[in-house]
Amino acid sequence: MKQSNSHISGYRELALILLGLLTLTLISVLITELHFGALSVFVALTVASVKVFLVLLFFMHLKFESLLLKLMVGMVFLLFTLVIIITFIDYLFR
After folding, report:
1. Per-residue confidence (pLDDT) for residue 59, from 0 to 100
2. CB-CB contact of 21 with 51 (8 Å)
3. What are the domain boundaries of the chain?
4. Quick one: which of 28, 44, 40, 41 has its CA closest to 87?
5. Are 14 and 58 in contact (CB under 8 A)?
6. Which site among 30, 33, 48, 49 is 20 to 30 Å from 19 CA-CA?
């Protein structure tokens, strides 16, 4: 049976990530007040993507998982990105 190595994150590291997430949430709220025109959705999705990656890496401990699991999660995000791009292309040509 394979012995698993557990990783315990320190409170300081988690607190810094939490502060980063709160800052990015504040930026998300401020984006709604600023008008970027056609780039508003792109900027909002970019900030949301950064928040997702922080949660995945640190709170869900993907940072310490095997390469296969990291690749599988990466493929899911690649598929999601392609669906979003195709949706925007469809919207652009209507």
Report:
1. 86
2. yes
3. 11-92
4. 41
5. yes
6. 33
Block residue for tokens 């056609």: 38
Share of the chain above pLDDT 90, in %: 44
Alpha-carbon span 19 to 4, nearest angstrom: 30
22 residue type, one letter: L
Spatial separation of the C-alpha atoms in residues 4 and 2, rounded to whole Å = 6
Instruction: Show pLDDT as tens, one digit a residue, over the chain (94 residues).
Output: 455 666 677 889 889 999 999 999 999 998 888 888 878 888 888 899 999 999 998 888 888 889 999 999 999 989 998 998 999 899 888 8
